[in-house]
């Protein structure tokens, strides 16, 4: 069957296998497969699980009935894709061991992944993604870059307020660098009682009773096309603490957020006679996803955690 843009299984394998290790989007908002581009997910009424009805039953009476409600919300995945034209001359003149088409697929995959990283960072580090009582803006000596601040107390107090205690932290790189060197953090962990140095991520996670800490390392160019490059972090100077259920789906489980994914990432190519004098190959990589925040009350956000 003729396809306008044939999917190539070899290039698709390259696209799936290539992964920038500094990206954390898939850990923060895990991918959940959906069968159609349009999908529905359930918003459960958490109060139904915390309101205790009268459970006392008389010898011949009927037990009270409990109901667990939810609201179905409709959404759809969006297509994110990029093309890279590879002239036939580049393919013919490539040195041994170098495949320009495969390289194009890898490079496109990196940009697709970086685009997703930015979308997740913008959602997770958006104050509007959190319940009004589950966020704080730090200023002055309260910021964790200040030696007089108390990040341990701030975080533990905040996590105790969330109805389902967060089990992961998401930090911008600058936040993590300051946090792991904070005198109170170092002193609480170091066996010698010193308050200088830097501590490992695992120790801080244990101190705060978290399953894991994810640090956003990705860089991107924020300048418009044609302007001088302005390289900045995708994840800013903020900190988020989230309850994540990696097994949650659109129909079951409760989690702060997830990523609906339709069909998985693909790559393909098509011969293009209009690429230069000899024609060439057009390479495409893409995926269909939708990043969803489905439980605002299952996270806590510190805006401007460091100066």
Number of helices: 8
The helix/strand class is alpha+beta
The total domain count is 1
| CATH level 4 superfamily | phage-related protein like domain
Give start-end ranges of low-pLDDT stretches. none
Question: How would you characterize the overall build of this protein?
Answer:
This protein is α+β, with helices and mostly antiparallel strands and 307 residues long. The chain has a single domain, classed as phage-related protein like domain (phage-related protein like fold), CATH 3.90.1690.10. It has eight helices and 14 strands. A hairpin with a 7-residue loop joins strand 12 (266-272) and strand 13. Helix 1 crosses helix 4. It is flat and about 85 Å long. 31% of the residues are buried. The mean pLDDT is 91.
List keywords for this structure.
307 residues; single chain; flat; phage-related protein like fold; alpha+beta; five-stranded mixed sheet; 26% strand
Summary?
With 307 residues, the protein is an alpha+beta fold. Helices cover 25% and strands 26% of the residues.
List strands and helices in order, with pairings.
Layout: H1 9-17, H2 25-28, E1 31-33, E2 38-44, E3 70-76, E4 78-87, H3 88-92, H4 100-124, E5 135-137, H5 151-161, E6 168-172, H6 173-181, H7 183-189, H8 201-207, E7 212-216, E8 219-221, E9 231-233, E10 239-242, E11 257-261, E12 266-272, E13 280-293, E14 299-303
Parallel strand pairs: 1-11, 5-14, 6-7
Antiparallel strand pairs: 2-3, 4-13, 6-10, 8-9, 10-14, 11-13, 12-13
């Amino acid at each position: 069957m003729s396809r306008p843009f044939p999917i190539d299984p070899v290039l698709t394998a390259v696209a799936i296998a290539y992964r920038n290790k500094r990206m954390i989007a898939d850990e923060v908002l895990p991918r959940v497969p959906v069968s159609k581009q349009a999908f529905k997910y359930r918003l459960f009424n958490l109060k139904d699980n915390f309101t205790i009805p009268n459970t006392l039953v008389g010898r011949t009476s009927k037990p009270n009935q409990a109901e667990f409600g939810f609201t179905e919300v409709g959404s759809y995945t969006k297509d994110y894709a990029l093309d890279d034209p590879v002239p036939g001359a580049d393919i013919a003149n490539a040195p041994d061991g170098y495949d320009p088409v495969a390289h194009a697929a890898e490079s496109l995959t990196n940009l697709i992944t970086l685009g997703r990283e930015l979308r997740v960072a913008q959602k997770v580090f958006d104050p509007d993604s959190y319940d009004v009582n589950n966020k704080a803006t730090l200023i002055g000596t309260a910021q964790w870059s200040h030696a007089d601040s108390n990040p341990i107390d701030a975080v533990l107090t905040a996590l105790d307020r969330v109805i389902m205690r967060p089990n992961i932290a998401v930090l911008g790189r600058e936040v993590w660098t300051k946090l792991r060197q904070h005198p109170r953090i170092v002193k609480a962990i170091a066996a010698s009682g010193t308050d200088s140095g830097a501590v490992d991520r695992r120790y801080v996670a244990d101190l705060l009773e978290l399953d894991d800490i994810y640090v956003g390392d990705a860089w991107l160019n924020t300048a418009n096309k044609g302007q001088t490059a302005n390289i900045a972090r995708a994840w800013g100077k903020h900190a988020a603490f989230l309850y994540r259920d990696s097994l949650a789906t659109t129909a079951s489980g409760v989690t702060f957020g997830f990523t609906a994914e339709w069909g998985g990432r693909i790559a393909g190519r098509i011969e293009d006679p209009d690429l230069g004098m000899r024609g060439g190959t057009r390479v495409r990589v893409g995926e269909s996803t939708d990043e969803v925040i489905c439980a605002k009350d299952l996270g806590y956000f510190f805006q401007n955690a460091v100066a």
